[in-house]
Amino acid sequence: MSLPEPFSGWFASRGWQPRAHQLALIDADRAGESVLLIAPTGAGKTLAGFLPSLVRLAADPKPRLDTLYVSPLKALAVDVHRNLLEPIAEMALPISAETRTGDTPHSKRQRQRKTPPHMLLTTPESLALLISYADAPEIFRHLKCVIVDELHAVTGSKRGDLLALGLARVAKLAPEARRIGLSATVAFPDALSAFLSTEAKPDDPRVRRVVLKGGAKPEIGILRTKEETPWTGHMAHHAIPEIYEQIKKHTTTIVFVNTRAQAEIAFQGLWRMNNDNLAIGIHHGSLEPEQRRKVEAAMARGALKAVVATSSLDLGIDWGGVDLVIQMGAPKGALRLIQRIGRANHRLDEPSRALLVPGNRFEALECQAAIDAVMNGELDGDPPKTGGLDVLAQHLVGLACSQPFAPDEVYREVTGAAPYRTLSREDFDAVLDFVSTGGYALKAYERYKRLRKMPDGRWRIGNPTLAKRYRMNIGTIVEAVTIKVKLRRGPVLGEVEEYFINTLTPGDTFIFGGRLLTFEGLRETWAEVTPASGGEPMVPAYEGGRLPLTTHLAERVRAMLEDSSIWPTLPKAVEDWLDLQRWRSVLPRRGELLVESFPRGEKEFFCLYAFEGRNAHQTLGMLLTRRMERLGLKPLGFVATDYVLAVWSLKEVQDMDALLDKDMLGDDLESWLAESSLMKRTFRNVAVIAGLVERRFPGKEKSGRQVTVNTDLVYDVLRRHDPQHILLRATRADAATGLLDVKRLADFLVRVEGKIRHRRLDRVSPLAVPAMLDIGKERVDGAGIDDLWDEAAEALIAEVMDPRPQGKLPL
Amino acid sequence: MSPLTVNGADLVADHAGALWWPERRVMVVADLHFEKGSALGLPPYDSRETLARLEQLRERLNPAQVIALGDSFHDRSAESRFDEEDGRRLRRLTDACDWVWIEGNHDPAPAALWGGRVAEEIVIGPLVFRHQAERKRNVGEVSGHYHPKLSVAVRGRMVTGRCFLSDGTRLVLPAFGAFTGGLDARDPALRRLFGRGLAAHVLGVSRVVRVPLG
User: Fold this and answer.
1) Which domain holds residue A489?
2) Which domain CATH number covers A240?
3) For residue A514, is pLDDT > 80?
4) Domains, chain B
5) Is A392 inside any structural domain?
6) Of B81, B189, B207, the CB nearest to A786
7) Residue B81 and residue A444: Cβ atoms within 8 Å?
8) Strand pairing category for A509-512 and B208-212
9) What is the DSSP secondary structure assignment for residue A717, as one 8-state letter?
10) Is the bond into A6 cis (omega within 30 degrees of 0)?
11) Phi, psi for residue A180 in degrees, rounded to 5
12) Do A717 and B46 touch (CB under 8 A)?
């Protein structure tokens, strides 16, 4: 097969040969098949995805919406649009391509609905908006192809659920439209195939799979540092001098970090020693979009020597010049590492180069494990999840905004979306009941009906205002409430979580956007800051970006601990540390759970080497301390890392097996969930997505009396009076895998039953030291909060008694 | 339980969110906001939650008189949305003692159907009970309306709780209703009601904590 003109000529003029996968996509188009294209970065995936449409439209350019492109990132849609215009212009094709995102002006969006371009480049949220219009059938009638970019990054999330439901609707409006999914290498390709199948089938013969193997293997190493790997911490700040040297040696370096706070600290550290005045930038999700765009543009021009970035740069835009990727702190997953490494050197035939910088000794093991996994081509990642009922609730309202619908038909339609393949009719009806009546057979709720039943049995939207409000609240990303940070008499620098600002007192300093700032106070809707002259900064304790260790890497770390023959390949300090552990105690073995207990000071400690990730450890810590409380062991606190859970108490635990019995997942879990702040946060997200409460629009003034309702209160009341409420069920489903990771904990407890090795030691073991050093950073919940109140009272008494002027009192 | 004195009267800030005057066996609750859930399209169980907590309090304290400090019903039509069984439970409560509905801005006059009696304000010994504190510093005034809560940063995290506020001369109660939010104790609208020696009695997880605010 060959390319038709003018395409073959254009390829030749650039000195290109059409690649096999590009031709395969054109072939699939002619055969009417969908395609899952799996390829590493740099393979020309995006052009391959558009090529069939370009060929088709070049032959038949009559005006209609032919191709819909959906990207998880607005910026990526814009970038792809730019890249797409190039071949269109160079071949003088009579094809129009436009973007449509939240940034597109209202007039242009109106026009796009009346006279759509051939190709529309958009995001999952904008697609949801499009299908909620009454003229949606008209818009999509002639659609031939939907391209989903970075498919691996969308599936498995609530945005993926929303997109899947949107695609199911598009399939109904345009039954002929094929789907093309572009994805990086993944662990569960069947889940992606199912996503592209209109029947949600993982083995749909009408979804062709085209897999492009990676070119050269990457070169990955652990950065050796003069200062030895620290006992504890995640910042990897000790390695700043060596990182600086690497930046100097390379053309362009991306320094990836795991949290926004880490980005700020690393950026400061690099600039402090930047005697050569290297152009080093910073990029993270809290910065003003304008500032982020400037950094991206500078990267594209090759004007930056390095950029310190969080996952905000994980996806998308191609920068040719990057020749080194540095990962500070452990990568937390092999797939994530591959994707980050892929940001360096977007050319298939040359190896990408990457250096890993462990922040502590356990992370040194984890970094090595991740390198081994990548070199062996092993992938981790999550198996597909079932779709969220809260997202379904949102979608049903959207459908009703467009056209009245019959429940039977819509049930068939949504079960054609992969995440909802197993959705029962009962659950569907319960969600429909929730969005129509609220789920309460109460007269009082008549005026809140979002959907109304028509005499013919179909459902329509309650009134036009509801449709308007729905469109303002579309989407599944529920941000923490944030506050703008604004320089006095200067510009807005970005946003931070409200809770962080609440912990500041005027006069406190913190680092933000790479600058040391003084908090001057809260103004109407922003936090006012001034440049600080010096002093100890309080670093923003941003929550974003902390992912737990994957089960796959955890398993590899366990294997490394057991096999002492590979220890010499680790940094010297880490090898010595493991040797010392072997001498003082034992090393954890695979297939069992090592627990060490020892007295220290007046207290009793025990450490569990579970390697199940922070979230699961946190949940386990909560449950264990509750149980110990009941057993009269007087627990005092716990600290959870990705690797270890350490618990301390006044009395010694005698029977570890009984303490760790899996029955804690019953009543103990239930009663803890009742008051867990994580559970309440999960509920808030669900309530917003499902439309129970509306997003809080920033800038909205609070009146003297609050009219907003705290979802925590709703959660408490629902739990007691309607425990099977659809929103509580959605919350529990989220908790199983999200912040509480209950499922992973449950699997763990079952696995270690009867395989617990309890070592009683007379003092702390080397392996326990990192966790012990973390003590003091723990959080308390439940009745412990009252102790915090006592502390607050004492602190305030001290302040009241302070003879100094009262300017700093919070009143 | 947190003892406090207002204009010479010895009172107790109860952990359940009610004010208790042992000497006179008077129990005071503020801002019940019955049927707030149904007013906002939120789940409907807030009224029965509030009723259950009132029943527990009555059981425990056995008051001779209960004063509801206004805004007992979320809006004028709240009464018509009341569930029948909830209504019977409320009636049992108001029949059991001398129940006084103070008029609030949300519910100028609760219907006779719910029992009790209605008053704009009520004076007992050194104390006067009304819905909203007046701007002038009235000594011995006990009121609701503001839904005070306190948020304090301790060890890098925020703790928040509903609270009683008193400087020894007057007192503002926390809201009792299940879906009622709050106004921060530091808000000028609240702060200007009090003089020196203001303290918050915060409803913690298992007890009341006295936090001085200067």
Assistant:
1) 482-542
2) 3.40.50.300
3) no
4) 2-212 (3.60.21)
5) no
6) B207
7) yes
8) unpaired
9) H
10) yes
11) -125, 120
12) yes
